[in-house]
Amino acid sequence: MVPALIDYTDSSDRDISNPQISQNKLTPSIQSVVDELHRENPDFSHLIRNFYQLMQARVDPPLESIWIYTALIFRSRNQPKDDVLDRISAAKDLFQLVSACSAPCSSSKSIALLAPVVRLVYDVVVESFNRDLALKREKKVMKEVKKLMGVILGFINVCCSTKELGLEDPLINSNSGWSFQCLSCVWLNRNEVVGNLLPLVSKDVLGGLSDRDGDVNYLAGVVIAEVFLLKLCLNCKAGTSREEFETELRTWAIASITGFQNIYLFEVLLRMLLEKTLPVTSLLSLEDEVLLRKVLYDATVLVEYSFLNSEKAIHISAEHMKIIAMRRLILAHEAVEYFREHGDQRRSISYTTAFSSSQLYSQIVKWVKNQIPVEDSSLKSKGNSPKALIKWLLNLERQGFLVFGDSILKYHSLDISKPDFKPPASELDSNEADDDNIFYIDNKRREEHTDDEKWKKEEKKRKGENSESDDDSLNSENEDEDSE
What we know:
484 residues, mainly alpha, 0% strand
């Protein structure tokens, strides 16, 4: 257990409880930490007291104060360790420290502060995956990692379920003059960059973090995405059959996205999937990365999540929702093309069919109709595949109508030169899907707004699975291994 927080408060420091005074003290205190970091042998002992007081001065402390206080405490108590079990123990201590300090904070801030914890766990997993996981000691390491990951996921679930995400203070107070990239240095070695602190995100996601510096919600979504991917990578070592394995991963992914109800997580996943490779190459083989991409395509394209309904996402601006919708449209197109190129025509058809009857398609058409008088018969003649809709939107752009406020091509380069695959009518009319390749989505789910949970129950019933939680199924370890 992490030691209790040290109380540095005394009567001479009562004036810091004034928010303006504490803000005025925060900026020079951060500068003092940065200056100390550049020394050959930095000593932070005299700065810990300052940041403890700054952290205690507000009911909902600035992220900067907790971020730096926990970093200084962690540095003072944890010297670099070679033993992997000691490093897991250090990660547990840091999690306890961060969760204790962020208890009074908003939900997004509490999640965002977990970034250094996730990095520590990631480093352990990378090292363990490069060893023989059949060895007794490595089994123990993985067991401890999975336990900690379970605790972290539980913490995030509680944050997402008990507090409203979206209505938050800025991540970085504009008056402090410090960006997230600058603040990340307190958790990094001298030769590291911000990407080392967030190792499971893509370049585009990091770019979004820079573009939206000050958005605590986006950083929280990035951290959730890292935990989400790390958990999936751990599950990739389950050793079950390929078909069963893909089903379990898909079920867990959809159930988790449903549980988190976090639009920023979904946005981060979209941005990752629009890049050529997922940021898991240090953890998974090429074959497993391909499988994970298919699972994430299913989870992001084929499922209708109620939290993506613009009427429910009241804390998200209309412009932001349009950007997310644009990325969803592009991803649907790329998923269809991906399966076509890999010879899985049936799955490609299922994606096109799901898209044509989706709420996303209806919403985009509605946005177009709000700008331009369009006859339904004219719209149907254009086709209802993702590619057909993109071509239509690009044609409207050439006429001066920017449905999304910006050109689609500004966000992602597209190849729409290939003709759409036209399957036999019997395949398009059939409501039956190949259980071995894809899962069928009942379109009635959109009307009932119980789509996510209903799908989960129907999927279990169809596959003949029991009612135990998916997470327990994925994490169950061989009893013989535990007894060793």
